[in-house]
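Consider a protein example.
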Amino acid sequence: MSREPDTNVPGVRHDYAQVGEVRLHYAECGRRGERLVLLLHGFPECWYSWRHQLTALGERFHVVAPDLRGYNLSDKPARVEDYRTEKLVGDVVGLMDHFGARDAAVVGHDWGAAVAWATAARRPERVWKVASLQVPPLPVWFANMTVKQALSSWYMLFFQLPFLPEWQISANDFAGLERMFKKTSRPGTFTDTDLAVYKNALRQKSERTNTTALTAALNYYRANVFANLSRSLGAAKSGGARIRVPTLFIYGERDFAIRPESVRDVGKHVDAPYRELRLAHSNHWVQQESPAEVNAALLSFLES
């Protein structure tokens, strides 16, 4: 039997929060009572993708990086509809309630960015600042859609299939996933230990629902891709929900999944102070590829 990889990060504590019907595992750093910052990870990761940010931001804020519902050590509901955006936004607000915070800065990457945008749009009274890494707001995404972007997003349709994506991703000890991480990141970004952490996180299985973390992660796409398309087409006539809280957008310009033309004019969708940072040498995994630059940008934004 293989040993579980070491996920110990000095200064980072771990615990669980009961949020509605799900129990969420989280990592935290900093002193409770300071302003709350929530770090929301993307696919196919877990809290560990914020290992470089937890301690850096924790010197000034109370920083919490949950495993989003379905991922790693958090509960894994069985139904696809349990991963709809409204449920995910509810989890974010529930975490604020768990820590007794009237609001939080919400920082997200990939799927976590989509949840951060949705939380800021739907519950602006609970968000004092929002920061998104790589993913623009849905109205911007669809307004900028091109044939090249549609082709780059082919995997979103593949993930709608039952069973086959799980088999393909997990085959040969997640060999394809490991190649993807290494091929689409700056050299040296991911160590063997880092990759083992992500593989182990996707292997986790709920005894109660018999659902694996991998299936739960894919259910984010199954529950939301077509629903978001329909919602965005309807919202296009009205301009969509605006973002009305101070916003930071960080984008690694070598992203293999989200093309540069797809993140044009993000600031035009924000009715509040807006900042943008572009990193020419980073790919999709920007907070892990360029932690110093991302940490400095986040600290400057949150402290201003």
Observations:
- The chain is about 40% helix and 15% strand.
- The mean pLDDT is 95.
